[in-house]
Amino acid sequence: MPQRPDLNIADSITLKISSRGAARLKAGHVWVYRSDVVAADGVLPGTLARVTDERGKFLGTALYSSASQIAIRMISSEPVSDLAKLLRDRIRAAIAYRERIVRDTDAYRIVFSEGDFLPGLIVDRYNDILSFQMLTQAMDAASTRKTIVSELTNSMTPAAIAERVEPRILELEQLPAKSSGLIQGDKTGTVISMNGVRFHYDALEGQKTGAFLDQRENYAAAARYARGEALDVFCYQGGFALHLAAHCSRVTGVDSSRPALEQADRNAALNSREIEWIEANAFDLLKDYSTSGRKYDTIVLDPPAFAKSKRTLDTALRGYKELNLRALKMLRPGGILISCSCSHHVGRADFLEVITQASQDVHRTIHVVENRGQARDHPILPTVPETSYLKCLILHVSA
Ligand code: SAH
Hints:
single chain; alpha/beta; Archaeosine Trna-guanine Transglycosylase, Chain: A, domain 4; Transcription Regulator spoIIAA; Rossmann fold; 3 domains; 7-stranded mixed beta sheet; 6-stranded mixed beta sheet; disordered N terminus; binds S-adenosyl-L-homocysteine
């Protein structure tokens, strides 16, 4: 048979997966775990390969990782002859989606990995600066990076593009060590705006890509109900606190990170707000405050992900229970609790259950005012449950 002129690696290199792996793909998921890979002969780390079942039936095209437990991330149900074109099309589609659905901000997620059919790629826009994270061998490959940076430059014309590196991910994917830095341009700082509130942004500082954009719509929602004296626990650079300040008589933000609080203070000045920032371990502070009888009208709890895996779920639930119990105790009648969890492993029902138990322990009645999730620029793909991770409950607390 004559060779097709466009024959590329995906046409010739095959990953064979078990029937359990195939069933997972049939259900619409895009991951296949290493334990379900039957054969990966000749498939190089971070390359494109066709995926078949054990009998050789074609199931789609994937990006392969030789290190991660998630060995296969599907990129198409079709054969792929031009990966660069596919990446460019997907990035443009992701940008068009945001143009339709994102409002009131110049800071939002442009590419949300699996949620945008670009597994392993995160791109955030912070006004005129873009910040990306490559989370897999395939996305980190030189040719892929080049295509992505070139498409982002053409489509968004940013002043600068920064790369943020998480050492834990490099380790998981067995990628060479490197540090965060500017990939293009020389601008590292800008000012972003969300719901009319302004924040300093520094492309090379802070956690994740710099801000927690997934909470953007929850800030505005929290502000709708907030009043009186407010406490923002795990405040980072003041996302909730600054939104609450317009509606509350007094706002206090608590975090264990001094650099985060210093930036929070600069953000307060930028918006001409007076906010008290306290550097403390939230667990200790809530224990002290609740036992000494402090009272608030509005409390926000937005801790880091306690459950990084299923194994740590019980400990995570205990952590959430303790935080929420202390907060409920401190809320005056008619108070508002905004309680968040960003662990995918903690289900929405489990999270509400834990808070309900806490409310029963302290004899407070709660009503669910809003049951919210991540901002809409972090699109949820129902067949990939991991794309849904943030819970944000707004609760009214009676006597
Ligand atoms: N609410 C923030 C995001 C919070 S991220 C926003 O909307 O931007 C979680 C924060 O918890 C981080 O800033 C981290 O520094 C802080 N943190 C982690 N462990 C902590 C602890 N034990 N006590 C206080 N803060 C903690």
